[in-house]
């Protein structure tokens, strides 16, 4: 069930910058302040003279650099799990090079991904019935956990992620 009405109304300048990835997922932008994350708000863009597209490019470049330094992908039976420190795993969906170059050799068809929380990202070949079943199990295991995201699978179609509803 999705909320239709916001719980709190903010002035645009004070609202966080959001970007839609698909019908289920939004990107939010944060600055790592060491012991906490601070949301990038529209007023920050105005102060710096940066557009939302420029912010997105900067954020993806920063994430890609972090991934090049820290990303580990481990195989667990028919699936792979991506680890990057516990906060940005789901954000790896944004790094096109990860899916088109770095790990493209791991699939024959295309990718199927589960990202049911910000710190969880698992994937497999979309044509693997065992892999897809295991991804659904990953989603089930994080139910009730912290920093939840929609409990759907995402199939890579071109450069986009198509949501596949979790039954």
TrEMBL record:
<dbReference type="Pfam" id="PF07285">
    <property type="entry name" value="DUF1444"/>
</dbReference>
<protein>
    <submittedName>
        <fullName>DUF1444 family protein</fullName>
    </submittedName>
</protein>
<dbReference type="InterPro" id="IPR010838">
    <property type="entry name" value="DUF1444"/>
</dbReference>
